[in-house]
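Dear colleague,

Following up on Tuesday's group meeting, I ran the structure prediction for the two-component complex that the binding team flagged. I've pasted the input sequences exactly as they went in, so you can double-check that nothing got truncated or mislabelled along the way. The structure tokens for the whole assembly follow below. Feel free to forward this to whoever is handling the docking comparison.

Inputs:
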Amino acid sequence: MSWDKSVKEIKWNDVMETERYEYTVGPAGEEFFNGLKQGKIVGSKCSKCGKVYVPARFYCEDCFVKIDNYVEVDKGSAYVDSYTVIYKDDEGHVLEKPVYIALIRFPNTVGGLLCYAEGNVRIGAKVRITNFDWPLRVMVE
Amino acid sequence: MKVNMYLNKRVAIVGAGLTLFRRRLLETPQEIAWEASRKALDEAGLELKDIDCIVIGSAPDAFDGVHLKGEYLSHGSGGIGKPVSRVYVGGATGVMTAIAGWYHVASGMCQKVLAVAEEKMSPARPHPQSVFKYIWDPILEKPLNPNLIWIFAMEMHRYMAKYGIKKEEIALVSVKNKRNAMNNPYAQLGSNITVDDVLNSEVLVWPVQLLDVSPVSDGGAAIVLASEDVARRYTDTPVWVEGVGWTLDNTEWPARDLSYARYVEFAARMAYKMAGIERPNKEIDVVEPYDPFDYKELHHLEALQLAKRGEAPTLLKEGIFDIDGDIPSSPSGGLLGVGNPIAAAGLMKVASIYWQLKGTAGKMQVKKPVHTGVAQSWGDLMQAGTVIVLRN
């Protein structure tokens, strides 16, 4: 994770420009991303209200308690909640092939994941996660 | 000074929470905000559903590297489905967060308010200092490519020159605060150092040396404020917000007297007037002035009217501001000892005074009995001052 990286010591007289940022994923994020490495979707379940957050969260935003209970979510149950189609890149050039971006969700969980989608993309359709590197890629059956 | 301000309700602090102050905390900014908020609610004996509104304080978005940080932090601060606002006045944000919480209650609009301040300074590379690159006048100042330490060095130098103050005298602040921080379980940089250590540390921008400066840090702080009638239901030992003050001086900093913090004086006079304080140095028992640099604590003690101009170093040497002195200053260890996650550091000062007045400051508790305490923070381009007076 990001905090494992060794960082060059900064002197006061080095060039001071924010060149980049290095973010932490947090303890819950670590569970989620380690899960992806094993091909799993990891959520976390609030012990008070029972809600399951995907991706895993460190606390329940409603009950406001810490969540220690990490659970594997059935990745086969993922479906397309909504999607969009991108025709141009950041600089306005027309892409060779339109790119589908889907918001996928899992039944009875809170949250959703943005991913690249292929196949016959349509709302409500089941998806199969084909690549667990981030961002995810999914095939709509 | 006349302030057109009309109060409806008396306001108390009923709970406070802090996270560790550390360089590169593992938690995300949202998680840091949540941890501080949770602790404050626990101390107050309240649940999130009891809270009417949320105030979030955070310094530039660029520190955490997330734009619109108020929105970003809102679910960690318990803001979902509630009125939420974010305040930002640079380094003065921490105390401003408490003040903004206060006015939501004092106006009669809300009964219970959660005020949360968070800062994560570690994501910015190569150094968080660089986020200040664009705060300067683009024509008059930017061509010299200044950074903040430059102008503080000039301020420090002017202060030393005007009153004939030596670096040895200023270094005592760093010695005192880092020593006090050893009693603070949240502190990043508590240590027993000597004046020589400060004078022998690396020169950053003369006369500012490494141990004159507070460390870069990540951290969160939160307090719960309640109106008088509600506060009495939840605690036997409410700590009252008796006075608040906030002012903005001229942003044209080269035109100001660098040896005196007028912006803090204005804010302090406003707060003292509200609290009915006429002789600050007799009536104030404990103080947490903003100390991102050691000379800055002296600067602010003078502007808070706790020492005459140029005399704070003498009083410091006499032990007046020690933890067992007449007016203990930064008993928490301040920013020099606890760390400086900007907004969180300011609210940490309010929380520290609250615990002092409640008598639950543990090893940080000052020796004398305390009834009136003051927390102060300062920021923007050296022009924003915020002061809060608490009483038990």
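The longest strand of chain A covers residues 94-105.

Cheers,
M.
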